[in-house]
Amino acid sequence: MRSHEVTLYASGDSHTSARLESVTAKATSLEKKPAEYYLDYENLLISQAYKDAKEARYDIIHSHLTSRTSFYAPLVDTPTVVTLHSPLNGQAGRVLLKRLKDQYYVSISNAQRAFIPDLNYISTVYHGIFVENFPYCSDPEEYLVFAGRIVPQKGVAEAIDTAVVTKSKLVILGLVDDNENSYYRTEVLPLVTKNRPLITMKGITDLGKLYQTMSRAKALIFPIKWEEPFGLVMVEAMAGGTPVVAFARGSVPEVVEDGVTGFIVEPDEQDNRSYKSYKTYKWITKKKGNAGLVEAVERLQKMSQEKYRQMRENCRKRVAEHFTVEKMVEGYIEVYRKILEGHI
Prior knowledge:
Blueprint: E1 7-9, E2 19-21, H1 35-54, E3 61-63, E4 80-84, H2 91-96, E5 104-107, E6 121-124, E7 143-149, H3 156-165, E8 169-175, H4 181-194, E9 199-201, H5 207-215, E10 219-222, H6 232-239, E11 244-247, H7 252-255, E12 262-265, H8 289-302, H9 305-322, H10 325-341
Parallel strand pairs: 1-2, 3-4, 4-5, 5-6, 7-8, 7-10, 8-9, 10-11, 11-12
Helix pairs in contact: 3-4, 3-8, 6-9
């Protein structure tokens, strides 16, 4: 913990090397009860943290709750810094508009800031992984992979269409969201059924098998239809050497280097926020939307073995240089230093 004393406010069944403070024995959010049930306990836990802070127990409070601590932060002298994990164009963002300067904010991508550019941002700190935990594969198998929740904004149907047009096998590793199961039933499942055995739906699997499946893929297809704040699955795939083919939405242009670690495709939507700031961006794939995804996959398929192997090496190298736990820790320590020393 870099010699810092850390207290974690979380459920009593949490595994941590920090000192643990909790108000429940188990994680209440995992219980099948109305949201009000676990939200009340979360607020109880937050209030306990700020009550302790009022007694001068801490130098800084680091919150991972997008808007919830904004109700408590102005009540104590201890500064709060919040890592923003969610898009800011919803209810949480509307709350934060009322608290522009009461907390410090860390974005997880620069693109995430677009909806509320005037928040009291102190830094952007990218998520990090332990690269050594991800198996590297230089000679993958001939299939594409999709990994993520089976919801419309993740673009599962678009990934299937891309695989069908390019005559590529596609492995889908995904969680069917209970709130979006109509999308799975009406749009995804019929496509899977119609195009078997080209399309394989594997659902949820353990992390070891997940990382192995991603690392052996020809490419990760990431046709997101929303402003993804970060997209950890892109980093996890690249750690295994797997290039990413994705729409330029949200953080994608910050994570993927077009033509080097995969291909970034211009979406059909003309009002897409994520690439408005990339006016000088040179699209390697010339087509937009689904046609652009197809073009990108075909480029990968036509690459020489030497060039393609180099792209896979580039993927691993990019993660090792930009998206490690060590880089993330350094970023947060610098955030704490700036706040506590007043260099802001």
